[in-house]
Each structure stands twice: as structure tokens, then as C-alpha cells.
What does this fold into?
Amino acid sequence: MLRYLTAGESHGQGLIAILEGLPAGLKVDTAKINQELKRRQSGFGRGKRMQIEADRVEILSGLKNNFTLGSPVTLWVKNKDASIEKLHQVIAARPGHADLAGLLKYGFSDIREVLERASARSTVATVAVGGVCKIFLKTFGIEISSRVLTVGGESSLLGIKAKINAALKNNNTVGGIFEVSAKHVPVGLGSYVQADRRLDSRLAAGIIAIPGIKSIEFGLGVGFAASFGSEVHDEIYYRKGKGYFRLTNNAGGIEGGISNGEEIVIRACMKPIATLMRPLDSVNIKNKKSAKAATERSDTCVVEAAGVVAESSVAFVLAEVFLEKFGADCLKDIQSNYRIYSQRIG
Ligand code: EPS
It folds into this structure.
């Protein structure tokens, strides 16, 4: 079983993840994980915190001479801004953030106690975990990427930049849609036999857990709702040497909760960041009088970064189902199981 836990506050000492269940014998290059962390920090519309931090991972356990031991891998990313004890109180909840529900749920008297962990800074740990999973998947030729499709309804690069600039100028924020795809995923990962074994349900759970994600679709997605069956199902062909193949991929690489050998294609919507420098109406939690929501240093647009985080969520789930199918202790055993399976299915 592949699993992980993360910990850390936005302005605490740093972010940590313990990833357990990787096979022994995998070479882990930390430079590759750092590349992913850097990608997460990038993108047009990122805020000032990204100029302060230069996220870099340190691996504290689970490796010897850069090879996994099969023991838990501890990933540590230090925060440069670790000012948690000195930061001011927050007393007017931001609409759209975890602030109010979190405050009431945990019985706090300062919204700061909520936002420190609810912050999307926690996705540093998600991306560190995803970075390791990507290294594992690459061993089998599986590659995951993402791209921004729209921001504020605009799809051209110029339109997207203009939208983000307008948001920046007006102290506003803007969301959008990104697409994640996974190439060379073998047929047969996940299963229809139980709800929690379906590949699409597991991928959806991973992506919707990223702060700010409001919708998700696979392949043609909502487009299925406007079509006849004959127009949208991916017809099946076979050619000797090539095996089974399709000419279309409306299913987005998953049928019946199982990967079907085509590219996995997922799109998700990231809402505009809830921290607005032109704050919305809220309530002072001390005296219950109307107040403008708290303002904090934040980002204008994080759709590109959210795509990078989603790649990590996809990488984790694909590594998890891959290990379930092909074994989990020793990389060489997994490689040999994978070879035998590939020969069987042709
Ligand atoms: C983030 C770090 C945060 C925010 C952002 C994500 O840094 P700070 O709050 O110190 O400026 O930029 O947080 C949020 C979007 C949020 O809702 O809390 C990061 O590292 O991704």
C-alpha cells in the first residue's frame, strides 16, 4: 500500500511529508523533485511569497546512496518565512476561504489558527510526494504534464495575461481551468469491482483535495451530456503488432474505472483565490458587527500552479494503482511482473 501524510503550517518551520510503500531499489534524484517544486512556485499571477521562498527538498529518511530502502521516505522543505508566532490576528473571515467554518469547527478565537494550515502552501508537500512518484512512474515510461486552458474565460496567451493584469490592477483575483494528462499508462490500472478501487474515483478524490478546486472532468467530461452515444464512445480497432487502439479518446483514458491504455485526460476548475485586496463583506468575529474581510499578502492567479499540484496528485494515484497491480517491495520484481503482463496483453 502506498500512502503519505503531510504536516506543516504556511508560516511555520516548513512542510514535511512521509511517503510509505515505495519499492526498494528506486534511484531518487532530488534535483528532479526540486524542479517540480520550482514549477509549483511559477506562473503568471503568483504573489510576493514566491519571491521570498525558494522551495528545495531535503530527504531525511528512506534512502541510502540515493536508492530507496523500502522504508518510509521523509521529505522536508524549509520555509524562509517562518513568522507564525509573530503574525497579527485575523478577525474578519474571507468569503471563499476555510476561515469561518474552520474557526467555528475548532473553537478558535483567531482566524490565523485556521489559515496557517488551510493555506495552499501545504501543496509544497503534495508536490514533493508527487515528484518522487513521477520518478517511479518514469521508470515505466509514464509521463504526466499539465497546461492552462483558460483564465477568467480567456484562452489565448494574450487574453490570459490581460485578464491576470486586470485582476492585479483592480486588487482582484481570477480562476480558470487546467488540464492534466498522463501518457503511456498501461491498460488495467484500477478496477470496476469496488467503488474505492475505481481509477477515476481515486484520481478525482486526489484532485478535488487540492485547495480551490471546484470541478473536475475526464475526457469529454460535461460534453458527454450533449451528445448521442454513437457520437462519443471511442470505437475499438486491432492491428497485429500495434494491438488494440482507438481513433478518439473521449473517455479520457478510463473506462469502467480502469485505465484503457489511452492517454488519461483530466480537466479541473480552480476558483479565484479567496484573499482579495479589495475585500468583500464579512463579520468581525469578536463583536459580530459588519466588517470587510481580512486582507493578506496572496496571489492573483494560481491556475498554472494548481495544474502542477494536480500532476502530483495524479502521480501519487497512478503510482499507487501501479504498485497494486505489479507488486510493491522490490523494483526489479515489479519490472519483471510488468514485462510478463505486457507480453500477455500484446
Ligand atoms: C502559498 C503561499 C501563501 C500564499 C498562497 C499559497 O503565502 P503567503 O500567505 O505567506 O503570502 O501565497 O496561499 C493561498 C492561496 C491561501 O489561500 O492561503 C504557496 O506556497 O503556494
Observations:
- Residues 232 and 250 are 6 Å apart (CA to CA).
- The two ends are 28 Å apart (CA to CA).
